[in-house]
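Appendix B. Chain record.
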Amino acid sequence: MYRLVFILLFNMLFTMAYAQVNIWEGSTVHKRVELTPYITEPQQTSGNLTIIVCPGGSYFWHDIETEGHEVGRWLQNNGINAFVLNYRTAYVPAFITHYRLISRGNRYPDPQDDLCQAIRYVKTNAEKYHVDSSKIGIMGFSAGGHLAMSAAELFDGKDLPAFVVAIYPVVTMIEPCVHKRSRRGLLGDSRVGNKELRDLLSLERHVPSACPPVFLVNCIDDPIVDYRNSVLLDSALTANNIEHRYVQFDTGGHGFGVSDHKGTVESRQWKSIFLEWIERIKKLI
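Structure tokens predicted for this chain:
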């Protein structure tokens, strides 16, 4: 009992040693975008893997606890360094008022710019955090899954992630299975009908030949994001011969993150399946 308490307290103190940071501090972007580190003990890191976590929320807000900090702690407890990204979203006022019809607000490419900057920040500070700059992946949930996968398609060179983990992700921006709230959140009210942007951000249409390995999970009974989003992405990855694993569950719904009680017993299996997958992938990257 005392040993368990000691381990928990030690882990809490170790995590607290790395403060939350503003990734844009000192830059020409006058925004505060927070990145929260969850760093393992160096000798316990699983192949020195690092994952930047992107919570969901339809590009309007964040499920910052269930799909953010809980995920960071879970990864840390499994020997994987994590950084939870509170990327820019449209926020609730934009959802309620549609003010972005006349004012820009937050919209594409702001979330993508934040993720790109987060990757650069972690790589620049790799020595500080004891991470391997060549083994940084992205994990995203729902709209955050769209953001994570967009990094594999829109970023290049040193900004390209080593792997992507997309959990019940938004994928497409076109009918018939588009998640309209995420589309509006990302594109903005004045551009929601822009065909060029809809095409660019429909990820099933632009899988590159250099796409990193992808781990993909969703549930057929998802009531929020049509399960066919993941089917479209799986088909595109397969057609382009991209290393990936697609796990489709019958039950589990949406928004369960790494919770031990949300979703279903079936859907919660994704965590152990992912840990097995990443053990194999870390040998390839």
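Further analysis of this model is presented in Appendix C.
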